[in-house]
Design goal:
Elements lengths: L2 H17 L12 E8 L3 E4 L2 E5 L5 E6 L3 E7 L4 E3 L2 E3 L7 E9 L2 E4 L2 E4 L5 E10 L7 E9 L4 E2 L8 E2 L2 E6 L5 E9 L8 E8 L6 E2 L3 E7 L33 H4 L7 E3 L5 E3 L27 E4 L20 E4 L5 E3 L46 H11 L12 H5 L23 E7 L6 E6 L5 E5 L9 E2 L3
Parallel strand pairs: 1-8, 9-18, 10-19, 13-14
Antiparallel strand pairs: 1-3, 2-4, 4-7, 5-8, 6-7, 9-11, 11-16, 12-15, 12-17, 17-19, 20-21, 22-23, 23-24, 24-28, 25-26, 26-27
């Protein structure tokens, strides 16, 4: 073969190999490789895949969804920097896999406390993470007024000191607190509220419950007592057997709330209406429903013969008698009846008598018509009894008087009968009716009385004999 012919043959062979795909750049080219990606719930990777030269690297952007964070990115021998994942040198097809997890949620809980009569107290709101975060978490907080009024410092008209700042929750922990200063006073007012709101959470957490209500419960005298009712009534049909109406139903056990009705299962599966007396007021508020100072929403203080609080308020009457009771809700001070045959004896009765034409409703009533064992020298009527008690200086005071009908009714415990009063603070109370100072507007010969059997208020003839419990403005 001649030398030119051999050269032409080699050129033809090269052209043939090239035509059959022996060059670079195709899908099956051993000099390129495909890098695939896989993203779990809560995020994405872009681009979805990449083709790279043998020994080269590829970069991907890893993006978590709102409320999620990157947990891990692996595959192709790479590493993550910020949100960018860069592979190692790629020498074969491989896959980059990213996983995500929900960020821990930060929530703030409601808080409440009694106001206090003076100075300041701290109302603490608890802020929690659902789980530990990756590093420290920070969140801003700020207060805003509801029915409570905030100010830069305590003073007239200010219920709490406004607060704003940044709360840190250290890595490895899950709780923090926001403290708000509450201003004490002696003004009788409704319960008041304000709001604490969270905002601007750090990137390693998300907001859950972002706002909480702070409740400042009134604990000042001059308000109204509640009824003492803490149980619910059911609605029964028929009136016999299992369909007899019951008014001693445990509201919570029956599933009845202020807005949702329930069912009483012990006696006939009768319906229990929502929104009953037991669901509202001081009796339903844990801050004011403390049986240590009077049942349910009542709040009393036992006083000694000089009008000072007993050192041990838990003592029983037989061990250490007390002489008066301070009502911490209404601010009134009340006489305590005795069983000793003396001036304040529980059995003594009096006719209604008031010689002051400006307040007696047009009739003085009946003088000295009761039976008080000779303890009131001038006779047993309400005016003379008041004079005798003031002369004796009960509990160090001489401004005792007959209560109005409303004042006397404020002592009625409608969750009890015979007597309808808290006998833990008012011992020796008979299930009977007691005179008020309020004359009847429709009948000058009558005055209002309160019956401490069921708490009824009636008008009785002034010549009738009833019992008396005196009151004064308190302290």
């Amino acid at each position: 073969m001649s030398r030119p012919f051999r050269l032409l043959s080699l050129i033809a062979l090269t052209l043939l190999l090239t035509a059959c795909g022996g060059g670079s750049g195709g899908e099956g080219d051993p000099d390129t490789h495909t890098v695939s990606t896989s993203a779990g719930d809560g995020g994405a990777i872009s681009p979805a895949s990449a083709t790279v030269d043998d020994g080269a690297t590829a970069s991907f952007t890893v993006t978590p969804d709102t409320g999620y964070s990157i947990v891990n990115v692996v595959g192709c021998g790479g590493s993550l920097s910020g949100n960018t994942y860069t592979t190692g040198a790629v020498t074969a097809a491989c896959t980059v896999t990213a996983s995500f997890a929900a960020l821990p949620a930060v929530s703030i809980a409601d808080a409440s406390m009694a106001e206090g009569n003076s100075g300041t107290t701290i109302l603490t709101f608890t802020v929690t993470l659902t789980e530990q975060a990756n590093g420290n978490v920070t969140v801003d907080y700020a207060t805003s007024d509801g029915t409570a009024t905030g100010g830069v410092s305590c003073g007239a008209g200010v219920d709490y000191v406004t607060a704003a700042g940044t709360l840190p929750i250290a890595g490895g922990t899950t709780t923090g607190t926001v403290d708000v200063t509450v201003c004490g006073d002696t003004d009788s007012e409704p319960d008041e509220t304000f709001t604490v709101t969270l905002a601007n959470i750090s990137a390693n957490a998300t907001l859950g419950t972002a706002a909480a209500t702070g409740t400042i419960a009134n604990d000042d005298a001059g308000g109204l007592n509640d009824t003492g009712i803490t149980l619910c009534g059911d609605y029964a049909w028929g009136g016999s057997g299992s369909d007899i109406h019951n008014n001693d139903v445990d509201c919570a056990a029956a599933g009845a709330t202020a807005t949702v009705p329930g069912t009483e299962t012990a006696n006939g599966n009768d319906p229990v209406p929502a929104g009953q007396d037991a669901h509202f007021g001081r009796d339903a508020n844990p801050l004011t429903n403390d049986d240590t100072d009077g049942h349910a929403g009542f709040s009393f203080t036992k006083l000694d013969a000089s009008g000072n609080p007993l050192a041990d308020q838990s003592v029983d009457y037989a061990t250490t008698p007390w002489y008066c009771v301070q009502d911490n809700v209404t601010g009134l001070m009340w006489e305590v009846k005795t069983d000793d045959g003396g001036l304040h004896h529980k059995d003594w009765t009096y006719t209604w008598y008031n010689s002051d034409a400006a307040t007696n409703g047009g009739s003085v009533g009946a003088a000295a018509g009761g039976a008080c064992g000779g303890t009131v020298a001038a006779g047993c009527d309400t005016e003379k009894y008041v004079a005798a008690v003031n002369a004796a200086g009960l509990c160090g005071a001489n401004d005792w008087r007959l209560p109005t009908a409303d004042e006397l009714q404020s002592l009625v415990h409608y969750g009890r009968t015979s007597p309808a009063i808290d006998t833990g603070f008012f011992p020796n109370t008979l299930a009977s009716w007691f005179w008020s100072s309020s004359p009847s507007a429709s009948d000058s010969g009558s005055a209002w009385d309160v019956v401490f059997v069921t708490g009824d208020v009636n008008a009785g003839y002034k010549s009738s004999t009833g019992r008396v419990r005196l009151v004064r403005a308190g302290q």
